[in-house]
Task: inverse folding
């Protein structure tokens, strides 16, 4: 067995730039804890980040990192997963990033089901651009882009994922790191696309959905006799809000991954395969 | 033998859905196997059923550079074909029309306003049915009649028809062979005698394949070791996706039909970052969607190949027609300054080699390489000599384990790199961790906004351009060193220009040479001096504003004396070019 890696091995020398008290710290801690718990080595881990406060974590996680475009982390990760399915691929982004700019990729990546774990730092607004409304902002919420109240209804990412038959749908809370760490561990272990929406207080801009607001509403699914293999129950729990916010695994189903569906990947990762070719047989079709 | 051997153009026309293109392909393939050169040019509107379709195949014993407009045999599956194309026929040309088609009800050949062509009425549908076939096989009857007129022994066409239908089973092959024979037999000896053209087998010709520009790119990409292709369908790039989707799996290639072009290029970047050779392809509209990610590849220094197959713009434009109007959008794609390598092959043969070069450059310079084609080149079929050239694969600089051991942390983006290129590692490599970062970054990839680091990274990335530009070959003139006129052109427009120049020389009208620009960014070194040394220069390109002429002026200061531009969706026509060039020189 290889040397056991520690939390320190997954930290860079960069100091996090988040506001003191930001929920992103808790998610960062849970992520490092999860990969250490799973015995991963930094060089076998690829983390793809979107753009936002969440994506700025790219500088603080020691692994192979890819800090891509706003909203476009998922397709980069899918390309990585197809090219080298021997790596562990995780995607980190924000709610604006994943449910606004990149929503189509979220839906289609669930359909494709590559073996990726997707963590969304859901602070219900745009942090990095200074607090505008996001797709998960509550209706009526006052922000710099919605000074008279947000006119739109919030998107429910969990029911969307369950409707799309995503094979692993979970919600965590940045204020409960041990619970979140277990969700991330389960998500990484799940074969296929694992989606974890993470309730994340933004202490600077979101004065509505605060830690205490969440503490009043959060319940653990484990305490509700929830069966994550029952899609109907999952739907009911996912749509139960807004006064009760269950956290835990809502839905889980095993199905073939995208990588499974490509026979050319059955003999090992694409990147390790020989790519020198003799095309003479193919070209005879054209003579 | 007849007076004119192995020099002719055959054209078939009818409604979309009549099997026009596949018949053209069988005719072209037969000519290839006869040892001849062919170029076909399909025309069709953006419709699935209805609308007028044609396929036109030019055949020659000598290398061909483009289709030719004068037609010798016109196969008319409907009346519209005659109405539209009768004036393209040469004297002594033939029209073969389907008298059983409803559009010919009440048609009188005497009404056709050409006394110098022969009009042959054949009941194509009846002949097909009599041979046990059905209406759909009319085109195969017409193909048989064509070879009757050309007096080519049916052995070759029979083999092509067999190969074409073999996947559909023996019964279908037999039916088609019978129908082919029926068409052949329907042509009388007198009709064949009146038609002065024929096809004669060339015994010693080398093996050739018949491929489109898109096929050629796909074949070249496979030869280059490409392992990942992602695309969202858009004419005229779609057939590249179809080719790779069909043949890729057996060659160990993964093909993704992505949800949109933004996903396609980001997936390609992910695959390329991981270490496989990766490519995406689209037309102008899809490329517009890709532009932000072109910059991402430039900033993270992930080498990938992007195919941009142009069609008439702006917006949805002319979906199935040709144009070279996307050059500026490609050159200026994405915000900020960074190296985008832009190349434009001129022929299917060049597509095979240039795409291999493109992959080498993508790896060597760790930056996006955009290979531009257009509808004309992407969808024309042409003869390509076998075996195909194989360019040795160069994966560029990858840091070795011993180099990595020497450093405490891997500096992926070393500012001290003199040629601008800094070795990479592939994810999974021990001691090679780095961050590929769309934000400006330090040598490790961490976000950094310090002015000196910004300048260091910008200037290093710019050094890649300088290194590449210095390594490119100086441009080569095609034709005599001294000429009355030097024609500069690019991409598929080269073909018609080359045909026109040949005609001007054959008819002793003028001496011209040609300078095709295949490296558009960076332009080859010494281009300005080369152009200034010419007697007169002209730019021939298929867009309204003179996009390449403007780019060359900006980069070299050279002003062209003349311009010929076309933007009606049609490729240049060699005969028209001859007239226009003559007018310019007088
Ligand atoms: C194409 C594009 N549009 C807009 C932006 C500006 N931008 C950067 S981050 C961001 C929103 C971030 O919000 P979210 O994804 O919720 O992440 P958070 O900062 O809250 O963690 C925006 C709009 C961008 N970088 N790229
Ligand atoms: S702005 Fe909000 S989300 Fe961003 S770092 Fe500060 S607290 Fe966190």
Result:
């Amino acid at each position: 067995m290889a040397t056991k890696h520690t939390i320190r091995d997954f930290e860079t020398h960069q100091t996090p730039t988040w506001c003191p008290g930001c929920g992103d710290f808790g998610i960062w801690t849970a992520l490092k804890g999860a990969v250490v718990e799973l015995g991963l080595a930094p060089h076998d881990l690829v983390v793809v980040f979107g753009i936002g406060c969440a994506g700025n974590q790219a500088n603080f996680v020691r692994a192979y990192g890819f800090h891509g475009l706003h909203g476009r982390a998922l397709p980069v990760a899918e390309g990585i997963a197809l090219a080298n399915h021997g790596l562990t691929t995780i995607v980190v982004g924000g709610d604006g990033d994943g449910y606004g700019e990149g929503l189509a990729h979220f839906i289609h990546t669930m359909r494709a089901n590559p073996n990726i774990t997707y963590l969304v730092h859901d602070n219900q607004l745009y942090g990095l651009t200074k607090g505008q409304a996001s797709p998960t902002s509550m209706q009526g919420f006052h922000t710099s882009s919605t000074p008279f109240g947000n006119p739109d209804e919030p998107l429910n990412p969990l029911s969307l994922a369950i409707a799309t038959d995503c094979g692993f749908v979970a919600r965590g809370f940045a204020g409960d790191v041990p619970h979140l760490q277990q969700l991330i561990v389960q998500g990484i272990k799940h074969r296929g696309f694992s989606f974890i929406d993470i309730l994340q207080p933004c202490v600077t801009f979101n004065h509505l959905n605060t830690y205490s607001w969440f503490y009043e509403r959060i319940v653990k699914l484990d305490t509700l006799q929830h069966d994550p293999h029952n899609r109907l129950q999952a739907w009911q729990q996912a749509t139960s809000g807004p006064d009760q916010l269950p956290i835990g695994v809502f839905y889980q189903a095993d199905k073939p991954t995208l990588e499974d569906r490509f026979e050319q990947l059955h003999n090992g990762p694409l990147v390790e395969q020989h790519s020198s070719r003799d095309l003479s047989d193919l070209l005879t079709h054209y003579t | 033998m007849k007076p004119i051997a192995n020099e002719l153009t055959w054209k078939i026309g009818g409604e979309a859905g009549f099997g026009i293109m596949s018949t053209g392909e069988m005719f072209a393939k037969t000519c290839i196997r006869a040892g001849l050169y062919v170029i076909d040019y399909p025309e069709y509107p953006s419709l699935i059923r209805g609308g007028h379709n044609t396929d036109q195949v030019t055949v020659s014993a000598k290398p061909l550079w483009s289709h030719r407009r004068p037609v010798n045999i016109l196969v008319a599956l409907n009346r519209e074909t005659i109405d539209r194309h009768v004036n393209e026929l040469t004297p002594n040309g033939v029209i073969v029309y389907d008298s059983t088609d409803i559009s010919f009800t009440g048609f009188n050949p005497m009404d056709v306003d050409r006394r110098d062509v022969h009009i042959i009425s054949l009941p194509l549908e009846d002949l097909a049915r009599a041979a046990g076939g059905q209406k759909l096989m009319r085109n195969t009857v017409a193909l048989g009649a064509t070879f009757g007129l050309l007096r080519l022994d049916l052995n070759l066409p029979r083999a092509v028809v067999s190969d074409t239908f073999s996947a559909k089973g023996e019964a279908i092959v037999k039916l088609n062979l019978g129908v082919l024979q029926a068409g052949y037999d329907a042509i009388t000896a007198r009709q064949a005698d009146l038609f002065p053209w024929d096809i004669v087998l060339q015994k010693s010709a080398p093996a050739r394949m018949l491929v489109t520009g898109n096929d050629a790119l796909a074949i070249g990409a496979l030869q280059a070791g490409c392992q990942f292709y992602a695309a969202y369908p858009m004419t005229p790039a779609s057939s590249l996706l179809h080719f790779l989707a069909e043949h890729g799996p057996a060659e160990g290639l993964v093909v993704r039909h992505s949800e949109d072009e933004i996903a396609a290029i980001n997936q390609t970047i992910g695959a390329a970052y991981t270490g496989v050779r990766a490519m995406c392809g689209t037309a102008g509209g899809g490329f517009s969607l890709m532009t932000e990610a072109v910059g991402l590849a430039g900033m993270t220094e992930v080498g990938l190949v992007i195919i941009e197959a142009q069609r008439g713009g702006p917006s949805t434009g002319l979906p199935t027609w040709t144009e070279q109007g996307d050059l500026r959008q490609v050159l200026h794609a994405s915000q900020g300054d960074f190296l985008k390598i832009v190349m434009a092959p001129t022929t299917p043969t060049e597509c095979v080699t240039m795409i291999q070069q493109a992959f080498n450059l993508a790896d060597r310079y760790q930056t996006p390489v955009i290979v531009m084609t257009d509808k004309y080149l992407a969808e024309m079929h042409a003869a390509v000599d076998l075996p195909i050239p194989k360019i040795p694969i160069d994966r560029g600089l990858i840091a070795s384990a011993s180099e990595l051991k020497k450093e405490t942390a891997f500096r992926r983006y070393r500012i001290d790199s003199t040629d601008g290129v800094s070795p990479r590692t592939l994810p999974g490599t021990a001691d090679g961790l780095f961050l590929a970062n769309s934000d400006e970054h330090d040598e490790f990839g961490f976000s950094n906004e310090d002015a000196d680091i910004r300048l260091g990274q910008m200037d290093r990335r710019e050094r890649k351009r300088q290194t590449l530009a210095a390594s490119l070959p100086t441009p080569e003139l095609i034709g005599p060193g001294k000429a009355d006129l030097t024609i500069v052109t690019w991409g598929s427009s080269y073909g018609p220009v080359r045909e026109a120049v040949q005609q001007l020389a054959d008819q002793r009208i003028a001496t011209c040479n040609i300078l095709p620009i295949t490296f558009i960014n960076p332009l080859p070194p010494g281009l300005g001096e080369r152009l200034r040394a010419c007697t007169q220069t002209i730019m021939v390109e298929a867009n309204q504003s003179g996009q390449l002429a403007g780019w060359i002026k900006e980069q070299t200061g050279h002003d062209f004396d003349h311009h010929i531009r076309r933007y009606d969706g049609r490729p240049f026509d060699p005969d028209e070019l001859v007239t226009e060039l003559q007018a310019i020189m007088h």
